[in-house]
Amino acid sequence: MQDRVAIVTGASSGIGRVVAIHLAKLGARVVLISNESIRILEALEEIRAISPESEAFEADVTSLPCLEESVKLTIEKFGRIDILVNNAGITRDALLIRMSHADWDRVLNVNLTSVFRLTRMVLKPMMKARYGRIVNISSVVGVTGNPGQANYVASKAGLIGFSKSVALETASRNITVNCVAPGFIATAMTDALNPKAKEAILSRIPMGTMGSPEDVAHAVAFLASEQAGYITGETLHVNGGLYMG
Ligand code: NAP
Question: Per DSSP, what are the bridge partners of residue 84?
Answer without folding.
Answer: 7, 134
